[in-house]
Design brief:
Length: 758
């Protein structure tokens, strides 16, 4: 019995000792060593869900980062060099330079201290992190930058490409540096001839006095802009000699290099010569532009011009009409003529307008100008002196207009208005002639003189103006009753009296009109817009819509691109007055149109990325309908984007599965511009960057197509050098996000995994 009690007591003494060693091992403290120095903290690091957490201020101050703490929002903002981290306590989402990243464990308050994840903070600030689970030690290492010598560019060439008289005339091209992995950017420097320049003085030039070309992997071509300056700060101009240099700016600690100078260039502005006096004469009696004949001598040298423009200016406005106003005149308000190689003489057309947009007519005093249009630069257009003042006289009518005013389906639907001739001394009456378009490709004075009295409507000369609705028995010039559905043009014949019977005068034709029972217009439907390209202009914008159900009274549709910054609302009046739009026809049931490179918004500005637009479509009536045009609702807002650089994957880890190396990672935050992921196994002592990654043979890596999920990929059996992966060699794993046609390969290589052996 005594021996039994001794055994029981001994067992009770030994039992607690069985659990003492594991308990002591679990309590082993975690240490954080930064570049060989143990991080001192007022609260020891702790492990939370497999992640080491350290006091916020201790870790950031150890990295010499600037810290801002917002007690109200529980948010820390830390900055070092060009990296800014924002981390909110309790949130699994942080940002690095405004890009969102996911955290396995959020920052949190523990025992009165704000704790943050060690690995996330360290790697975000460019440090390498290791973990020794046996020793409970986190090692953080600051990479040592590697220096190199960036090479100078070669083949620097300067060309005179325009005639603006400023930096836009100058284009510089050169061959890129041999190894662009060492290059941050290129700087194009323009120096006046005779100015000495070396690398030191080139690097000291202020940012406003050089142009930057980024590293793209191709030989750059740089077109300067109107604000471009020399290294002395002077604007670039004509008739000044220049030497052009290119500085290769080294990345990081890499040294920079200065190119040899391009051949000296002196910009020349080769404008067209001046025009002589323009002759304008009154040659007819139509009461419109056909009465006006314009002649002038061509330029002796037409090599720099593409065409001439004839401007008819009210004499009262001619004192202020200059080159700037001439260049700004709408194309609908001048007559354009291609150069012919001969002196030019022509009569204007019936629809010709003066520079204010009014139809040319009798009784108004005009002066005529001619503009020689430079083929490459509107600033070099040359304006002639004015012609002598001219007032058109007219024995015929003017301002002829016809409208559909009723729905009787006969002549009572047709209203004709016109101004009488200025001098009616020799006129006995006016004859309204309704001409069916299908039967007359032209209608002459001889045709008009031969029309039977039963087939026109006579109007006397009383007053200065006629407004006449025809009657139900009115007929066209062929004797048919006027009716709906037939297209007509209307003429007015000023018939001479017995003193002037042989001098009848025929007006110009009215616009064609088809009488209909008007029932209104409809707006388009299902309007949508999309960003389809990356040209940086209107070709990026596709507009789709369904046409109106009944297009009987529709002439065409107008696509209007409206910048939202300038229009809180966009009205029918705004749409009717817009001079910049894209026309779509009525053919088919729908329109699906990509705009062209010259497309502009309604304010006349080129369409480009980064600006928010809404698109509207205006249904435009034809001559058969007298009601208002109809404006669609606006599209959804759209901001055109350029191609975006790829973003790297994160959280690259490794593992083994049945003897095979498997790599896991968190997908890129944006996959729309990525074609594939490539997984590389790299000897740990070998340097490896984006440039090297893109050069690895396809048989030495494994790839996977993005599918919207985080991926796990079996690695290749060889490293990036083609050598088998063997035991006893240390490796790291990287993942490269590869750009597709919607992206730019600007980086994309992940951080490495932790070092490992098979």
């Amino acid at each position: 019995m005594k021996k039994l009690w001794i055994s029981i007591v001994a067992g009770l003494l030994v039992f607690p000792m069985l659990f003492q060693a594991p308990a002591q091992a679990a309590a082993k403290p975690i240490r954080v060593i930064i570049d060989g120095v143990t991080l001192s903290t007022d609260q020891p690091p702790v492990m939370v869900n497999g992640r080491t957490m350290v006091p916020l201020r201790a870790i950031f101050e150890a990295f010499n980062a600037d810290i801002k703490w917002n007690q109200k929002t529980q948010t820390v903002t830390a900055s070092q060099n060009d990296t800014t981290i924002v981390l909110k306590i309790g949130s699994k989402i942080a940002t690095i330079n405004n890009k969102a990243v996911s955290l396995d464990v959020p920052g949190q308050n523990l025992k009165g201290r704000t704790m943050v994840p060690t690995r996330f903070v360290s790697e975000a600030l460019g440090r390498e992190v290791g973990w020794n689970p046996a020793a409970q030690i986190v090692t953080i290492t600051t990479p040592v930058p590697v220096g190199g010598n960036a090479a100078p560019v070669s083949g620097v060439t300067a060309q005179d490409i325009s005639d603006y008289g400023d930096g836009r005339d100058l284009q510089i091209s050169f061959n890129r540096a041999a190894d662009e992995s060492l290059v941050d950017q290129y700087r194009v420097l323009v120096a006046k001839t005779g100015t000495s320049l070396n690398l030191s003085s080139a690097l000291a030039v202020g940012a406003n006095n050089y142009s930057v070309a980024l590293v793209t992997g191709a030989n750059p071509v740089v077109k300067l802009n109107a604000a471009a300056r020399t290294i002395d700060g002077d604007l670039i101009k004509n008739n000044q000699g220049y030497s052009v240099y290119v500085v290769t700016v080294g990345k990081g600690n890499n040294t920079s290099a200065l190119s040899s100078a391009a051949a000296v260039i002196t910009l020349q502005n080769k404008a067209v010569p001046a025009l002589g006096t323009v002759q304008a004469t009154d040659t007819s009696d139509y009461g419109d532009g056909r009465d006006l004949s314009v002649s002038f001598n061509k330029l002796a040298d037409e090599s720099k011009i593409s065409s001439y423009r004839i401007f008819v200016v009210k004499a009262s406005n001619s004192t202020v009409f200059d080159l700037g106003r001439a260049n700004a005149v709408s194309s609908s308000n001048y007559t354009q003529i291609n150069k012919t190689g001969n002196n030019i003489s022509l009569n204007l057309s019936s629809g010709s307008r003066d520079t204010d947009g009014a139809l040319i007519k009798t009784g108004v005093s005009y002066r005529v100008y001619v503009l020689a249009v430079d083929s490459s630069n509107a600033a070099n257009n040359v304006l002639s002196p004015a012609s002598t003042a001219l007032t058109l006289a007219n024995a015929g009518v003017s301002n002829l207009n016809v409208t559909d005013v009723n729905d009787y389906n006969d002549g009572r639907d047709l209203k004709v208005t016109f101004n009488h001739a200025t001098d009616e001394t020799n006129i006995s009456q006016y004859r309204i002639l309704v001409v069916p378009v299908n039967y007359y490709s032209s209608f002459s004075l001889n045709d008009a003189n031969n029309v039977s009295s039963a087939n026109y409507t006579a109007v006397n000369t009383s007053g200065t103006y006629t407004e006449q609705i025809l009657n139900s028995s009115s007929r066209d010039v062929r004797g048919s009753l006027i009716r709906n559905g037939t297209s007509y043009k209307v003429y007015v014949l000023a018939a001479g009296n017995w003193n002037n019977s042989g001098s009848n005068v025929l007006s110009a034709a009215s616009p064609a009109i088809t009488l209909v029972n008007t029932s209104g217009l409809s707006a388009i439907s299902n309007l949508s817009v999309s960003d389809v390209n990356d040209y940086g202009d209107g070709r990026d914008l596709r507009v789709s819509f369904n046409h109106a159900g009944d297009e009987s009274y529709i002439s065409h549709y107008r696509i209007l691109v409206v910048p939202m910054n300038y229009y809180n609302s966009f009205s029918l009046s705004d749409a009717n007055n817009a001079g910049n739009y894209t026309t779509a026809g009525t053919s088919g049931d729908s329109t699906n149109q990509v705009l062209d490179s010259s497309a502009k918004d309604v304010r006349g500005a080129a369409i480009k990325p980064g600006i928010s637009y809404r698109v509207y479509v205006l249904t435009v009536r034809n001559g058969s309908y007298q009601g208002a045009n109809v404006l669609s609702e606006g599209s959804a807002a759209i901001t055109l984007s350029a191609k975006l650089p790829v973003t790297s994957v994160t959280n690259v880890t490794y593992g083994m599965d049945n003897g095979k190396l498997v790599v896991n990672f968190t997908k890129s935050a944006r996959e729309s511009n990525i074609s594939e992921y490539r997984v590389f196994v790299v000897p740990s002592k070998q340097s490896f960057g984006s440039a090297e990654a893109l050069g690895v043979q396809s048989s030495y890596y494994r790839s996977a197509v993005p599918n919207g999920s985080n991926l796990s990929i079996a690695a290749a059996a060889r490293d990036i050098n083609g050598n088998p992966i063997v035991k006893g060699t240390k490796y790291k794993v990287y993942v490269l996000a590869v750009a597709n046609s919607s992206g730019v390969q600007n980086g994309g290589l992940s951080d490495s995994s932790e070092e490992f052996e098979i």
